């Protein structure tokens, strides 16, 4: 690979004997006639690769292997699937293709990489193939000639294609010594042209617009849009504005950054994330493996049980990957031994990528009744660390509790779980009560298998519970019962001002509260009314309503030179940046409803303005506008803007929007209005919530209604209107 390229090598974090099985389109008999060892890397244009970018590349890594004459042979759809061991292959000619990163139609920071290598496999030999992925985006930068602001004000350059676009604000442009930003585009196969539009205001107050096309834009190339002017005409206050396009191949840097997944800690034939429960003397030998694609340099055991070893002098932690002979002998005498397991990847020996820890029966079977915790911390040669905790529960009790999690209960139901921990058990169940009640209620446990075998689980479902109440329960077998456990059912929250009866004014802006200091809802009115109070987009309405005096009327319209969607959201409007807004989304909410009901009237018009759209979405003037209402329950992850943190910060200038598929999203539901609602009044809409995470209680709620679905991208129909009233959450 040329030295001027930046290479990011990607390895799979599994050792040979623990590697995950890959997806395969072809079945191989025996070991095949030859073998293949794969590695892949990425050449990028970044001087410094952040951890976030590394994570994006790893998350989007795919490798496919096909026969040269056609036909998929092997398919690895994630980095975790890519094996480190040699892959058995029949002799012949092949093509290896790799993709990495995030394929987004338009983005300021998401990049997509592609690579391809032709190779052959010969009988009895190992082929080593390194696929170098190169940037596949079309990139753009915008440059304004010094002095341009003497002729144009409030300049915005929008660049894009049929599926998405990005708007360059002042800070995104190379101008007056400012370091601008580079934009990245993935063009659809049917659209190889990039379009650009300059919108501005002339010194006399008249709008200015200039459009152009970069025809047949090529992946891997940077297009610099140089906006310049000449003072040879009275046009635009005495200047002619032109755009010159410079085309160059995207340069890459020489810095080498390896992407290596952290070590992996697993139990052999058991799940290390779950407690091992056994009567005294019956746990037997247990083995833990630490695996890594690079050398393991440290493995530390930390447990109170180690205090019993004389050489520990009362300490609880010991390094076992680089251990002295004396300490190794002392641990072995205690019943714990460990060692590196040499292996090979193809024809190359690997000495320190697999480490085995044995907890022998001489150790486990002498543990007295009680609970024991053993922490394992592994560090690799890239200074990446992984941690795991093994919990051992030794008890002569016939049954044990299984920890209850939010996935096991709602506001009115609960599923209690237990485990059989001793032979000879014939009956199992639970007793439960509301905390403080004198009487217990009993429910029989349902066993997963017919026999009450040691280690088998059982459960019972309880209904008719009271929301927002703490309950106590014990697991029982005959006359034995465990210690009391507790859980609290969910509350059944509703949001304030859900009927939109409270309204007031904050300066020129209509607000959805009598006092702005106590708002739950806000809207884009604060940005629109910088021009004047006549541009309030969200207002109270008495004509269409379901109950009470008012509904919220959301009207989309053109505000001078820029489209604005009528909207409302749970949160607060934070700041106006030029013609863009910054919004803090989310309010505290700790319930888990099944669905949301809302009364709506919607009357769309054809799209009049197209400023952009999300990746993969194509919208054009004349298409019918669509509206949307959506809600999300999210965890306590927050983003700080100014002096306050929010579950989500939306910034239309930097194209930062809420991601419904984000890791912080516990549940999500939406309703898209693709046409006008029926009848002359309002209709009831039910929006089910889909729970992506079932074992976590939310901390906040995101709730948004917009008369124009793509209003965040300044796209929609001037005149589309939505009325919203009586939001209600439904619980089981």
Task: Quickly list its features.
732 residues; disordered N terminus; 9-stranded antiparallel β-sheet; 10-stranded mixed β-sheet; mainly beta
Description:
The protein has 732 residues and is mainly β. It contains five helices and 59 strands. The strands form 13 sheets. Strands 1, 2, 3, 4, 5, 6, 7, 9, 10 and 19 form a ten-stranded mixed β-sheet that branches. The longest helix has 10 residues, at 325-334. The radius of gyration is 32 Å and the shape is globular.
Layout of helices and strands:
Blueprint: E1 8-11, E2 23-24, E3 34-43, H1 51-59, E4 62-67, E5 72-76, E6 87-89, E7 92-101, E8 106-107, E9 112-121, E10 126-135, E11 138-144, E12 152-160, E13 165-168, E14 183-185, E15 194-202, E16 207-214, E17 221-230, H2 235-238, E18 240-249, E19 259-260, E20 264-267, E21 276-278, E22 286-291, E23 296-302, E24 317-319, H3 325-334, E25 336-340, E26 343-345, E27 348-350, E28 354-359, H4 361-364, E29 370-380, E30 385-394, E31 399-401, E32 414-420, E33 429-434, E34 441-444, E35 446-447, E36 457-462, E37 470-477, E38 480-481, E39 485-488, E40 504-506, E41 509-511, E42 521-522, H5 525-528, E43 538-541, E44 551-555, E45 557-559, E46 562-564, E47 567-577, E48 580-585, E49 587-588, E50 595-603, E51 627-634, E52 639-641, E53 644-646, E54 648-651, E55 665-673, E56 683-688, E57 690-691, E58 700-706, E59 721-730
Parallel strand pairs: 1-19, 3-10, 11-17, 21-30
Antiparallel strand pairs: 1-3, 2-5, 3-6, 4-5, 4-7, 7-9, 8-14, 9-10, 11-14, 12-13, 12-15, 15-16, 17-18, 20-22, 22-28, 23-24, 23-29, 25-28, 26-27, 29-30, 31-32, 32-36, 33-34, 33-37, 35-36, 37-38, 37-39, 40-41, 42-47, 43-44, 44-59, 45-46, 47-48, 47-58, 48-54, 49-58, 50-56, 50-59, 51-55, 51-58, ...
